[in-house]
Each structure stands twice: as structure tokens, then as C-alpha cells.
């Protein structure tokens, strides 16, 4: 039941700050354990993760702001600027990638399942993102999930000197909880879940 409670408590927390309830070492340990243990199809282990603190975290959101400024009209910029500043106000950011070279190798090695490996890769990444997000919540850390890729891909790869085969899937800013999420609304469970006995 503790597992279910942790899942229920995991929310998108947008009011994050630098006042962390645990050390960076604790965050690193938890992320490492989950990267090692979250399942992947054929035990492919295609996930690649970057955890950025301090100036590295800030640079991610400077890149986002710079790239968005090229796309967003000036009269709409203030809201965008405030949103990105909210992510930058956090303590760190987790970047989630999938190694597409490894996915391609699996497609060649198992041609019968070739079309499925990119799908399975995304599914595995989703499980990892969810697991880390839930674990952060258990530590008292607020987080949310963003998707500024592919807009920022080139600059992120360049800044962190990452292989081009690493496909950026999402960004997870995290930090101390400045304000709780609003109450969650649910569609009727009867429309979503069916039991046959």
C-alpha cells in the first residue's frame, strides 16, 4: 500500500525552489538505483540520464529561453519567460534520453521485432521517468515534466558534449516544494477500467 500511496502523491509541482529537503548525494543515489533497476525490453538498457545541478541546471533553462525567444512573438513572451523562470528556480534538472544507436542494433539483431524496439524504448523511458518522479516525491522533492525537445536538442548536446545518438525525450526540473498542486480531477473509473471474472 505504501507503493500505491507514493503513486497517488506524485504530482506536477510547478512552484519549486532551491530549498532541498535532502542532499544532492541522496538524489544521485536514488536516480542511480532506478536507472539500474527499471525494466527495459530485452534488458536493452537504452536509457541515458543526465542529472544537472547548479550552473549546469541553470544553463539548461538559459538554452530553453534562448531557443524559445526565437519562436515566441514578443507580445506573448512575458508568460513564456515567467514559465521558464519557474523551472530555473528549482534546484536541478534531470534530462532523459534514449540511445538510438542501441535501439538500431537491437532492430538489426532481432528483425522480427524491429518495428517494436522504438516503441519499447519509449515505454521503458516512460517507466523510468515515472519511477524517478515518484521517488523524488517520496523524498519530499517537487518535480514536473517538460518537453522542449527537439527545439533545444542541438544546444543541449553541444553543452553537455553528448553523443548525437542520444535522443532527448524530456526534461524534469526539481527542487523544494514552494506550493502544493491543485486537487486532481478524475474521469469516472467506470469509463476506464473493466473487470471480467
Fold topology:
Elements: H1 2-9, E1 16-17, H2 24-37, E2 47-53, H3 54-69, H4 77-88, E3 92-99, H5 100-109, H6 117-138, E4 142-143, H7 153-160, E5 166-177
Antiparallel strand pairs: 1-5, 2-3, 3-5, 4-5
Helix pairs in contact: 2-6, 3-4
Give helix and strand order, one letter per element, not per position.
HEHEHHEHHEHE
How many domains? 1
If you compute it from the alpha carbons, what radius of gyration comes out, rounded to the nearest whole angstrom?
18 Å
The main β sheet shows up as: 5 strands, antiparallel
CATH topology: NADH Oxidase
Beta-strand residue percentage:
15-25%
Q: Please bin the fraction of helical residues.
A: 40-55%
Question: Please, how many helices?
Answer: 7
- Structural class by SSE content: alpha+beta
Apparent shape: globular
Give the number of DSSP strands.
5
Stretches with pLDDT under 50, minimum 5 residues:
none
The CATH homologous superfamily name equals: NADH Oxidase
Structure, described:
The chain has helices at residues 2-9, 24-37, 54-69, 77-88, 100-109, 117-138, 153-160; strands at 16-17, 47-53, 92-99, 142-143, 166-177. Helix 2 (24-37) runs antiparallel to helix 6 (117-138) and helix 3 (54-69) packs antiparallel against helix 4 (77-88). With 197 residues, the chain is of the alpha+beta class. The protein has one domain (2-180): NADH Oxidase (3-Layer(aba) Sandwich). The longest helix is centred in the middle third of the chain and has 22 residues, at 117-138.
Amino acid at each position: 500500500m505504501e507503493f500505491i500511496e507514493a503513486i497517488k502523491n506524485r504530482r506536477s509541482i510547478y512552484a519549486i525552489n532551491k530549498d532541498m529537503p535532502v542532499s544532492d548525494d541522496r538524489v544521485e543515489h536514488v536516480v542511480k538505483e532506478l536507472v539500474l533497476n527499471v525494466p527495459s525490453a530485452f534488458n536493452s538498457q537504452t536509457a541515458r540520464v543526465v542529472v544537472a545541478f547548479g550552473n549546469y541546471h541553470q544553463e539548461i533553462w538559459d538554452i530553453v529561453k534562448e531557443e524559445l525567444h526565437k519562436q515566441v512573438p514578443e507580445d506573448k513572451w512575458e508568460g513564456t519567460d515567467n514559465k521558464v523562470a519557474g523551472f530555473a528556480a528549482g534546484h536541478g534538472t534531470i534530462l532523459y534520453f534514449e540511445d538510438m544507436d542501441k535501439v538500431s542494433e537491437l532492430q538489426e539483431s532481432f528483425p522480427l521485432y524491429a518495428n517494436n524496439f522504438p516503441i519499447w524504448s519509449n515505454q521503458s523511458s516512460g517507466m523510468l521517468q515515472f519511477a524517478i518522479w515518484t521517488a523524488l516525491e517520496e523524498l519530499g522533492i517537487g518535480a514536473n515534466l517538460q518537453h522542449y525537445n527537439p527545439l533545444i536538442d542541438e544546444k543541449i548536446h553541444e553543452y553537455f558534449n553528448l553523443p548525437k545518438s542520444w535522443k532527448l525525450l524530456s526534461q524534469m526540473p526539481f527542487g523544494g516544494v514552494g506550493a502544493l498542486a491543485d486537487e486532481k480531477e478524475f474521469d469516472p473509473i467506470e469509463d476506464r477500467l473493466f473487470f471480467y471474472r
